C-alpha cells in the first residue's frame, strides 16, 4: 500500500472499535501511519474540530450497527446520518484532502443481475436509505473543493472478530455448543468478502485519494446455504444446521452480488478466497468461544 505523494498523511478512522474499523487501524499501524481514532461520537462540533486537527485523510466507518435492528432502526440510522453530515462539514472546513466513506449494497434496488455502481439506487431498508442519503450529501456542494470523496459500497463482510450475534458467528457458536440452528432454506446468493480484504480496499482507496463510487466485493456469488454448510463441515457439526426451518426474513433479498471492475481498475486485489475465509472464521470461533471480539463488538 503506497501512500499518495505529498505531505505526511494523518488519517482519521471513525468507528475504529468496530469489526472493520479494528482491521483498518491494525493495517494502518503496521504501515506506521499517523493515526487518529474516533471510536464513538464526539461531544459537540468544537470537540470534533479539535480531534480532527491536522487530519489529511479520513476513513469513515462509524454508523449504528446493532445486529438486532440496524436495518430498520429509524432513530439509530438518523443519528448516524446527522453525525456523518457534521463530520463531513468539519472535514471540508479543516482542509482534509480525502474521505473514504462506507456505504452499503443495501442502497441498490433488488435485482437478479449483478449490482453495478451505476445501477438503480432504490433502498429496501431504513439503513440503506440513510446510507444513500449521506452519499448524496457527501458528493454535493457541501464537500466540493479539496475534499476527494470515495463512496465504498460494502457487501457481505465476514471474518474473524465479527459481532457474535450476527448470522455467521451465531452459526459457529451454535455448532461449537452442539445446538441445532434453525435457518431459512439458504438460497440467498451473497457476495462474501473477508474483513481483511475489505479493510485493505478502504485503505487502498484512501491512499490513492480516488473519487467516485466503488463496490467493495469479490464479484463471486455463494449461496448462504453453501457458506454456512462449509462452516459446519469445518466445525464437524453440519447436521445441526436445519435449513428450511425458518422463513426468509423481511430484509433478505435473494440476490446480492456485486461487480468490482472499478475497484480492481485501481490496482486492488483480493487476498482471501472463500475457502480461506471460512477456515479463518472456524479457527477464530473455535478459539474464542463465547467471548466478545477484542476491543468490543
Strand order of the main beta sheet, please? 2-1-3-4-5-10
Alpha-beta content class: alpha/beta
Shape: globular
Q: What is the element string, with H for helices and E for strands?
A: EHEHEHEHEEHEEEHEEHEEHH
Distance between the termini: 27 Å
Major sheet attributes: 6 strands, parallel
Total number of beta strands: 13
Helix content estimate: 25-40%
Number of helices: 9
Percent strand: 15-25%
Radius of gyration: 19 Å
Low-confidence segments, given as residue ranges, are none
**Average pLDDT level:** 92
Which descriptors would you attach to this protein?
297 residues, alpha/beta, six-stranded parallel beta sheet, three-stranded mixed beta sheet, 9 helices, 37% helix, globular
Tell me briefly what this model is.
With 297 residues, the protein is an alpha/beta fold.
Amino acid at each position: 500500500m503506497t501512500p499518495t505523494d505529498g505531505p505526511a498523511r494523518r488519517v482519521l478512522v471513525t468507528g475504529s472499535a468496530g469489526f472493520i474499523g479494528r482491521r483498518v487501524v491494525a493495517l494502518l499501524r503496521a504501515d506506521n501511519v499517523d493515526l487518529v481514532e474516533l471510536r464513538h461520537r464526539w461531544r459537540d462540533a468544537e470537540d470534533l474540530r479539535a480531534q480532527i486537527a491536522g487530519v489529511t485523510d479520513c476513513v469513515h466507518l462509524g454508523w449504528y450497527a446493532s445486529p438486532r435492528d440496524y436495518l430498520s432502526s429509524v432513530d439509530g440510522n438518523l443519528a448516524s446520518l446527522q453525525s456523518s453530515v457534521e463530520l463531513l462539514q468539519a472535514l471540508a472546513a479543516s482542509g482534509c484532502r480525502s474521505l473514504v466513506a462506507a456505504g452499503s449494497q443495501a442502497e441498490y434496488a433488488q435485482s437478479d443481475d449483478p449490482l453495478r455502481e451505476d445501477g438503480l439506487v432504490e433502498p429496501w431498508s431504513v439503513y440503506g436509505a440513510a446510507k444513500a442519503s449521506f452519499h448524496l450529501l457527501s458528493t454535493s456542494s457541501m464537500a466540493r473543493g479539496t475534499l476527494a470523496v470515495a463512496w465504498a459500497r460494502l457487501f457481505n463482510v465476514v471474518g474473524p472478530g465479527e459481532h457474535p450475534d450476527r448470522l455467521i458467528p451465531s452459526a459457529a457458536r451454535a455448532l461449537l455448543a452442539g445446538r441445532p440452528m434453525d435457518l431459512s432454506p439458504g438460497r440467498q446468493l451473497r457476495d462474501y468478502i473477508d474483513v481483511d480484504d475489505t479493510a485493505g480496499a478502504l485503505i487502498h482507496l484512501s491512499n490513492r485519494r480516488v473519487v467516485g463510487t466503488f463496490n467493495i466485493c469479490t464479484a463471486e456469488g455463494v449461496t448462504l446455504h453453501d457458506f454456512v454448510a462449509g462452516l459446519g463441515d469445518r466445525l464437524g457439526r453440519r447436521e445441526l444446521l436445519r435449513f428450511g426451518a425458518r422463513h426468509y426474513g423481511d430484509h433478505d433479498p435473494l440476490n446480492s452480488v456485486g461487480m468490482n471492475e472499478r475497484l480492481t481498475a485501481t490496482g486492488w486485489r483480493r487476498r482471501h478466497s472463500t475457502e480461506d475465509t471460512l477456515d479463518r472464521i472456524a479457527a477464530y470461533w473455535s478459539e474464542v468461544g463465547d467471548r466478545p471480539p477484542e476491543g468490543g463488538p
